[in-house]
Amino acid sequence: MKGMSRLGWLVVVVMVTCGGMLAPEMRGQSTYTAQLSGVVTDSSGAVIPGAKVILTDEATNISMNNVTDGRGIYVFTGLRPTTY
User: Fold this and answer.
1) CA 53/CA 73 separation, integer angstroms
2) In the chain, what are the domain boundaries?
3) pLDDT tens digits, 31-53
4) I need a labelling partner for 54 at 20 to 30 A (CA). Which of 6, 30, 75, 79 fits?
């Protein structure tokens, strides 16, 4: 404790303890992913169920496939920020 008062050490202990309790919440907020959804239609505006939808990451050229549901809807989840 040389060079630091008891009060100084107490402040340090409290700060470290509080920081440790807040860390899980802070980590949870640093995760960022997105969701992309849409509807596939034909030229008349009718939905197309069972259409294959391909989403490609331009940086890695990795593609993900999806199929529209009965209402022509597709959903991609857990997407990282990039250009598709």
Assistant:
1) 10
2) 1-31, 32-84
3) 789 999 999 999 999 999 999 99
4) 30
CA distance 65 to 52: 7
CA 7 to CA 10: how far, in whole Å?
5
What one-character-per-residue DSSP string does 18-60 give? HHHHHHHHHHHHH---EEEEEE-B-TTS-B-TT-EEEEE-TTT
Dmax of the chain from CA atoms?
A: 81
pLDDT tens per residue across span 4-30:
666 666 666 666 665 555 555 555 555
Q: Distance between alpha carbon 81 and the CA centroid of its chain, in Å? A: 8
Enter the tokens of residue 55.
């989403």
Whether pTM exceeds 0.70: no
